[in-house]
From TrEMBL, chain A:
Its cofactor is FAD. GO terms for biological process: fatty acid beta-oxidation using acyl-CoA dehydrogenase. The keyword Endoplasmic reticulum does not apply. The keyword Transport applies. This is Electron transfer flavoprotein subunit alpha/FixB family protein. It comes from Hymenobacter aerilatus. Binds 1 FAD per dimer.
From TrEMBL, chain B:
GO terms for cellular component: cytosol. Pfam families: ETF. This is Electron transfer flavoprotein subunit beta. Belongs to the ETF beta-subunit/FixA family. PANTHER family: ELECTRON TRANSFER FLAVOPROTEIN BETA-SUBUNIT, ELECTRON TRANSFER FLAVOPROTEIN SUBUNIT BETA. The keyword Transport applies. It comes from Hymenobacter aerilatus.
Length: 325, 246
């Protein structure tokens, strides 16, 4: 019996959300009186994988097959299922990412496991049941879900648990092979196209986000959003109408039909706060709203607000961040 | 080509969410239900592809009780050819996926499409479960889908970019923006929808694997703290010293 956690890597680095799930998995293992093993996917370096010891991981399995660098659903599912069988994993933990959702759902069938996605808290045992709290109704509610099979899979929402670092601890990295065949790579990508991320911070992973709406008036004014984002080390995002008219690329559009994010800080500039927009951002820890209309609905969901003109306020904020040093 | 499009029946986006007194179920009273917005992308794209091929069928499938039929009819009005309703309240993602897989198993469908997730349960699970139950590839989430013969080319969203994936039919894809511009029914569609076949079948399969023990609303926000625009810089100090997020 053990806990197995799936670690996503990119260009040799462990993703931030994977440091979070590694921490989550170690804490679940502690609850169950067992250890947490990691299985890494993507392009990883041995040094970075060994550092997962800092999150309490006791062993890392890694298959260096080059075709696993990019996401391949068939191959990833088999690799992780093989690791889960080998380790006798009772609980499997993943990030609630596009990879986590794609393989987690296939694994739940293959491993005959119950699955909770969008988990926002550590699991707890209640009346003999294993219960996980998850987000529901596009962030407008929470649900406690009992996982009723012996094996359980949990996909943890980003930024809902803080990664722990026990400096200097390392985990042994073991070579691992799931005997993958060409057939397992039948759905391998023909091409991978990375998009420009303003400021170099990936929006789905970001813990700070500066976002602009129609109140920004045009693409030519986005330097104001980018300057503040850069000063804060934040990613940039936008509302749907902004990407519909191509002021910003689609992958920055957050909301019900865009991406859902849950950063620690979300700064909304010239965005009204329509319910469909809120659905993508309302589980952000701290929401800041800048809008010249004091009646804008977004103020109801905000923690901090400035009633004012974005063209006047944004440069002042950027300046103030720079002065913090 | 035979398309199967799975639609779920969800509370309208603007619904205020409340629960039954025991907090175990969503309170449906007075709530308007719609086709899950993500599923509309799947439905419209299937119809577009069928039209482009000048033949084939689009079947919509819903797991739900009789009260979902208005939205099934709406899907027929948008352009689906026929519909199947599995007569059961959806219990969890696994239960729904099994119903879909059981219908699909004998249906000879080439392409199975659905939305990325439902806006009520937000599971983002059913696509992969259906793919695995049927032993066919899944592409999730897909932003673009084109067909040429039996080969599909899809764009799959990854964090920070996209993958171009080619798979052969049959396959499952979960759809999201910007796959297409969802269609709304026109008058002619609404008229013809009434006469299109809607078959009701009884559920089969295993017990669900998860159970909601309690729903709750998120903790209420304290209320907004307003900072005068003249002192905008003050906000940054508050974010550092009070909220501790920078
Ligand atoms: C099915 C469906 C799905 C949808 N999905 C999404 C989604 O995923 N994401 C999304 O964002 N929307 C979505 N929408 C659209 C949503 O309903 C709103 O239309 C949209 O969020 C509005 O964007 P906005 O706030 O940028 O623009 P607007 O509503 O035009 O608001 C602009 C705001 O800027 C303020 N402003 C203007 N000038 C200034 C200035 N100089 N300084 C400060 N403030 C200023 C105004 O007071 C106003 O509040 C969806 C709608 C539907 C029907």
């Amino acid at each position: 019996m053990s806990v197995l956690v799936v670690i996503e890597c990119d260009k040799g680095e462990v993703k931030k959300s994977s440091l979070e799930v590694a921490t989550y998995a170690s804490q679940v293992a502690q609850q169950l009186g067992t250890t947490a093993t990691a299985v890494a996917v993507g392009e990883a370096t041995e040094d970075n994988l060994a550092k997962l010891g800092e999150q309490g991981i006791s062993k890392v399995l890694y298959d260096a097959e080059p075709r696993l660098k990019d996401f391949v659903n068939g191959a990833y599912t088999k690799l992780i299922a093989t690791a889960a069988e080998q380790e006798g994993a009772q609980v499997l933990v993943l990030a609630n990412s596009n990879i986590g959702a794609a393989v987690g759902s296939r694994l739940s069938i293959r491993l005959k496991a119950s699955l909770a996605t969008n988990a926002v808290e550590m699991p707890r045992t209640e009346g003999g049941q294993f219960v996980v709290k998850r987000g529901a109704f596009s962030g407008k509610a929470l649900a406690d879900v009992a996982l009723t099979t012996d094996r359980k899979i949990i996909a943890v929402k980003k930024n809902s648990i803080e990664a722990q670092h026990e400096a200097g601890k390392t985990a042994p990295v073991e070579k691992f092979s799931a005997n993958l065949t060409d057939a397992d790579f039948a759905d391998a990508p023909k091409q991978v196209i990375m998009q420009d991320q303003a400021g170099g911070v990936l929006l789905p992973e970001a813990d700070k986000v500066v976002s602009g709406g129609r109140g920004m008036k045009g693409a030519e004014n986005w330097n104001l959003i980018e300057d503040l984002a850069k000063a804060l080390g934040a990613a940039t995002a936008c509302s749907k109408p902004v990407s519909d008219v191509d002021w910003r690329p689609h992958h920055e559009h957050v909301g019900q039909t865009g991406i859902t994010i849950s950063p620690n800080l979300y700064i909304a500039c010239g965005i009204s706060g329509a319910i469909q927009h809120l659905a993508g951002v309302n589980s952000s820890k701290v929401i800041v709203v800048i809008n010249k209309d004091p009646e804008a609905p977004f103020f109801k969901a905000a923690d901090y607000g400035i009633v004012g003109d974005v063209f006047d306020v944004l440069p002042k904020l950027t300046q103030a961040v720079k002065e913090l040093g | 080509m035979k398309f199967l499009v799975c639609i779920s029946n969800v509370p309208d986006t603007t619904t205020k969410i409340t629960f039954t007194p025991d907090n175990k179920e969503f309170n449906k009273a007075g709530v308007q239900f719609v086709i899950n917005p993500w599923d509309e992308y799947a439905l419209t794209r299937a119809i577009e592809l069928k039209e482009a091929q000048g033949g084939g069928t689009v079947t919509v499938l819903n797991v739900g009780e009789a009260d979902t039929e208005p939205n099934i009819r709406k899907a027929l009005a948008i352009g689906a050819d026929d519909a199947i309703r599995v007569n059961a309240a959806p219990k969890d993602a696994f239960f729904v996926a099994e119903q879909i897989a059981n219908v699909a198993k004998d249906g000879g469908y080439d392409v199975i499409l659905m939305g990325k997730e439902s806006i009520d349960y937000n599971g983002f699970q059913v696509h992969g479960m259906v793919g695995e139950l049927l032993g066919i590839p899944t592409v999730a989430p897909a932003m673009k889908l084109d067909l040429s013969g039996n080969t599909a080319t899809l764009e799959r969203e990854i964090e920070g970019g996209k993958e171009i994936v080619e798979v052969n039919t049959p396959f499952v894809a979960s759809c999201q923006q910007p796959m297409c511009e969802p269609r709304i029914p026109n008058m002619r569609g609404i008229m013809t929808a009434r006469t299109k076949p809607l078959k009701v079948v009884e559920p089969t399969g295993d017990a669900p694997r998860t159970e909601v023990t309690e729903f709750a609303l998120p903790p209420k926000k304290q209320g907004v703290k307003l900072i005068p625009a003249e002192n905008a810089g003050e906000l940054i100090k508050l974010l550092r010293n009070e909220a501790k997020v920078i």
